[in-house]
Amino acid sequence: MTTVAAMEPLLPDDQKELEDLATDLVAKANGLAGRLNPVMRASVGDLVRSMNCYYSNLIEGHNTFPIDIDRALKDELAPELERRNLQLEARAHIDVQRMIDRGEAPNVYPTRCCGSKIRKPRNA
Fold first, then answer.
1. What does the pLDDT average to over 20-46?
2. Three-class secondary structure of residue 76 per DSSP
3. In 3D, which of 55, 50, 49, 52 has the Cα closest to residue 69?
4. Are 77 and 89 in contact (CB under 8 A)?
5. 3-state DSSP: the chain helix, strand, coil percent, rounded to 5?
6. Are 101 and 69 contacting, i.e. CB atoms less than 8 angstroms apart?
7. How sure is the predictor about 102, in pLDDT bands with cuts at 50, 70 and 90?
8. Alpha-carbon torsion angle 38, 43, 49, 53, nearest 10
9. pLDDT at residue 120, as a whole number
10. Spatial distance between the Cα atoms of 95 and 112, rounded to a whole number of angstroms
11. DSSP H helical segments within 36-80, as ranges?
12. What is the structure's pLDDT at 124?
């Protein structure tokens, strides 16, 4: 049986090269965004948020189909409870990401346990 410790430290040996690639990617993405018409930029943002939601849910084992995500964004929820719950989760995921993209992220984040909250640092 493989333990988590066998996978640590889950970081590449050469972080400098990875950091350089990430910096280059961000610069190129910003360059592309600056050349797009604002309407097109917003449409690409919506598409990427939906795609990120789909793959994020897939990684977590939540089998939400892209068509169900699109329908959830139009308030067309499935009658089946499990599918509807996945749609609601996807819509919440996209709503929060849209807030973050606009710089409107909430300062308080609820946690699953005990109703306690994690506060965003003031300088973050």
1. 91
2. coil
3. 50
4. no
5. 60, 5, 35
6. no
7. confident
8. 180
9. 52
10. 19
11. 38-59, 66-73
12. 46
* Amino acid identity for residue 18 in this structure: L
pLDDT for 61-74, tens place per residue? 998 999 999 999 99
Q: What is the CA radius of gyration of the chain?
A: 18
Q: Residue 67: which of 79, 76, 56, 58 has the closest Cα?
A: 76
Cβ atoms 84, 103 nearer than 8 A = no
Q: Which residues pair with 108 in a beta bridge?
A: 119
User: Is the previous residue joined to 106 through a cis bond, with omega within 30 degrees of 0?
Assistant: no
Domain ranges for the chain, please list them: 33-119
* Averaged pLDDT, 7-35: 85
State mean pLDDT over 17-42.
Answer: 91
